[in-house]
């Protein structure tokens, strides 16, 4: 039975999983999230009442959380590109970098964007300032960490790079990466050149007008 992915092409967490699927050319049915499609939204709500996406369905089994979905694909639908090293110690470094990108790049980036969608009287300036400060700290830490590394956990493209690609992509749109962080910017460029991510970026182009802070004319 075909894998079903409930996702949207413009969503960063969905792109994280799409990269893994594209790396291995894994076939799947794209169930595209559309808030004006009540049937689809009811399906999503029944699968995962938090209505967060991506959600993967494999022969009646529901798998949630982008990281877990990617690990699940590696276990149940493996392809030629392994995104988690077999050596548990090397895998720990990959997971550690994956957590960094989720918690210290994506979370503050989403905070800034979500706040911009709120009505003026519901905004949280202190929370946004903290989120921007966290992004600055993350860029500085990553710049040091990436010195001499091609990919997030070293020489091989991994789960951590699936996270880094969309999160650094949108983080730079949201809170510009300072030009002094050459290692981060070079890494972001390598990610954009990776065919799996380039495909996800291209598929999301039509939705750029939806970016609430205004999509820059680049990338
Ligand atoms: N922790 C989740 C986060 C998923 C997430 O935040 N997805 C966003 C799209 S990028 C979403 O569902 N937004 C809709 C909402 O929050 O209602 C994961 O790792 O998959």
Blueprint (SSEs and pairs):
Blueprint: E1 3-7, H1 12-23, E2 28-32, H2 38-47, E3 55-58, E4 61-64, H3 66-76, H4 88-116, H5 125-145, H6 159-174, H7 182-193, H8 195-204
Parallel strand pairs: 1-2
Antiparallel strand pairs: 1-3, 3-4
Helix pairs in contact: 1-3, 1-6, 1-8, 4-5, 4-6
The structure holds glutathione (GSH).
Report on the structure:
The protein is an alpha+beta fold. Helices cover 55% and strands 8% of the residues. It is built from 8 helices and 4 strands; from the N terminus they run E-H-E-H-E-E-H-H-H-H-H-H. It has a 4-stranded mixed sheet with strand order 2-1-3-4, with helices on both faces. A hairpin with a 2-residue loop joins strand 3 (55-58) and strand 4 (61-64). Helix 4 runs parallel beside helix 6 (159-174).
Condensed summary:
By secondary structure, the chain is of the alpha+beta class. It has eight helices and four strands. It has a domain at 88-195: Glutathione S-transferase Yfyf (Class Pi), Chain A, domain 2, CATH 1.20.1050.10.
